[in-house]
Specification:
This protein is of the alpha/beta class. It contains 7 helices and 7 strands, in the order βαααββββαββααα. The chain has a single domain (22-54, 62-213), classed as Lambda Exonuclease, Chain A, CATH 3.90.320. The model is unreliable at 1-14 and 46-58 (pLDDT under 50). Residues 26-202 form the DUF83 domain. Pfam families: Cas_Cas4.
Length: 218
């Protein structure tokens, strides 16, 4: 086809049918908890808590569409992103153009989710941004960075074949989730206490129901 064929693995082939765009942020939500992603996308549920409000505040300084030149690097804030091939849409907090090559930077408030899960979710979301940028600008994006507002430090993320495969797999899994008629079961683990949808999800209810049914039949 063209040079982009080397950028996109054939895990998700190009579709001849229009796809409903998935928000980039939904990939992180799904990685955290499929039920949370379904509640947001299918049920339209959303509740702010201390962590989501702090996260919104942390993004205020970057969610201003504008371009600026800093130390020879062109910087775009709140850059709209999309991929027709993968059916993604959203925006990047910051994209730096180093000698014309896009370099996405995602701002994160800190560790409010379980550490390893937070890392995975952030990397998948950032990699999805890179896939969009590759399609938009027709060139390979090899790495980006996660910027911690709390530590004021960057962590470089390399878009390895493994991370790309995990990202594409997440996109496919999220599309399958949205075709289901029932919500996925709740995680009912340590993730729940950090979730702003705890009151909506009620993860303890299914287990309580199973316990009650077991008592009725015993």
């Amino acid at each position: 086809m063209d040079e982009l064929d080397d950028v996109f693995p054939e895990i998700i082939p190009a579709s001849s049918q229009p796809q409903e765009p998935l928000p980039l942020s939904a990939l992180a939500q799904y990685t955290y908890c499929p039920r949370r992603a379904a509640l947001i996308l299918l049920e339209g549920e959303w509740e702010d808590n201390e962590f989501t409000l702090r996260g919104k505040h942390a993004h205020e300084n970057v969610d201003i569409p504008q371009g600026l030149l800093r130390e020879g690097v062109w910087v775009e804030r709140a850059l709209p992103l999309w991929s027709e091939r993968l059916g993604l849409t959203g925006r990047a907090d910051v994209v730096e153009f180093v000698e014309g090559v896009p370099y996405p930077v995602e701002y994160k408030l800190g560790q409010r989710w379980p550490r390893e899960l937070a890392r995975k979710a952030a990397e998948v979301q950032l990699c999805a941004q890179a896939l969009c940028l590759e399609e938009m600008f027709g060139q390979s994006v090899k790495e980006g960075a996660l910027f911690s507002k709390s530590s004021q430090r960057r962590r470089v993320v390399s878009f390895t074949p493994e991370l790309r495969a995990a990202t594409l797999s997440t996109i496919g899994a999220l599309r399958k989730l949205l075709q289901q008629e029932q919500l996925p079961p709740p995680a009912a683990d340590e993730r729940c206490k950090h979730c702003s949808l705890l009151g909506v999800c009620m993860p303890e209810v299914p287990q309580a129901l199973q316990t009650w049914q077991a008592r009725q039949t015993s």
